[in-house]
Design brief:
The chain has 321 residues and is mostly helical. The chain folds into 3 domains: 67 residues, no CATH class; 97 residues, no CATH class; 79 residues, no CATH class. It contains 13 helices and 4 strands. Strands 1-3 form a two-stranded antiparallel ribbon. It is elongated. The N and C termini lie far apart (78 Å).
Length: 321
């Protein structure tokens, strides 16, 4: 192989041009390198100057009807100093704990532009006011990253501090009516013949879901051990079993429709054998159906023989519990 030394300067020049073309001047980073603050990153910083606050009694002189309602709900505890624990100071007290300092509002003759109103701001900004107190709660600690807030649902879309129909959680409407205002598809599922008894009042949506967010899909709750929330009621199906039905690894929804179904036991198929062979066939990794199971009438009800379908401690084919 022949050596061409006179070609080196040309090669070096080409490499230099390529490398220089990749250099970016300072301050020219793309948004990917220097992202803008997220819409969910709002944080309310409370002014601490006592002279900016007027106190709840002053608010009452104009807003007596709202004050009278406020006096009957859980937020009224903010007017009692002994109940505020470590949160001391006028910025945590009464009406101004949520609406901010009221001095300029009062001096302006009730000028609405001089005080914070929840109707005129983004969901993230209004929710930041609520989370400043409620974020320390285990129940609400994940709302900043919840599917509801990311979809533009603010705290005040579900809760009404002044005109609540539920005095304990200050809900705008009782459950499940409140949830149905958005989740119309789920409402339809709950009127199917076989369903969890939410409409009957024996269960609530938040028994299974945490509306304020969580780490599971669909904001589902979990039980001890981080297992599926279904086991909170259906503990006998949880195990552990010596012989575990591997379908449970994928979740209960592989076989069941959680809100409601036209099939018994809320199964996703109307025939048990069709549900079973959707996994137990030669084309899948699950144990194949034996050749003598020809799907004649006597083999169509798999659970007549495989009674312990969720798991067994005595039979590897789930004949006995």
């Amino acid at each position: 192989m022949r050596f061409w030394p006179h070609r080196f300067p040309l090669a070096l020049l080409v490499c230099s041009v390529v490398m220089l073309g990749r250099v970016e001047p300072l301050g020219s980073q793309t948004p990917k390198d220097n992202p803008k603050p997220s819409a969910q990153s709002h944080k309310y910083v409370r002014p601490t100057d006592p002279s900016l606050y007027v106190g709840t009694e002053v608010c009452k002189t104009c807003h007596e009807d709202i004050y009278n309602t406020f006096a009957t709900n859980p937020h009224f505890v903010t007017t009692i100093d002994s109940k505020l624990d470590a949160q001391k100071g006028p910025e945590w007290h009464g009406c101004e704990a949520c609406h901010g300092p009221g001095k300029e509002h009062v001096e302006g003759g009730g000028d609405r532009t001089k005080i914070f109103t929840f109707k005129d701001v983004s969901p993230a900004e209004s929710s930041a006011r609520c989370l400043d107190c409620h974020q320390s709660s285990h129940e609400q600690s994940n709302y900043g990253r919840s599917a509801h807030l990311q979809s533009g649902v603010a705290c005040i879309d579900c809760h009404s501090p002044h005109h609540a129909k539920d005095t304990q959680s200050l809900l705008r409407e009782s459950s499940p009516k409140l949830c149905y205002t958005c989740h119309l598809d789920v409402r339809a599922q709950f009127v199917r013949p076989f369903h969890h008894r939410v409409n009957e009042g024996l269960m609530q949506c938040n028994d299974c879901h945490n509306p304020h967010g969580g780490f599971e899909r669909h904001q589902l709750r979990t039980v001890a051990g981080q297992d599926q929330v279904c086991y909170k009621c259906h503990a006998d199906k949880q195990g552990p079993f010596v012989y575990q039905h591997e379908a449970k690894i994928e979740g209960c929804e592989v076989c069941h429709t959680p809100h409601g179904s036209t099939n018994q036991r809320m199964l996703v198929q109307n025939q048990v054998n069709l549900l079973c062979i959707s996994c137990h066939s030669l084309s899948t990794g699950a144990l194949a159906t034996p050749s003598f199971h020809n799907q004649a009438n006597e083999y169509q009800a798999c659970t007549l023989c495989h009674t312990a379908v969720h798991g067994s401690n005595s039979s590897n084919v789930f004949f006995t519990p």
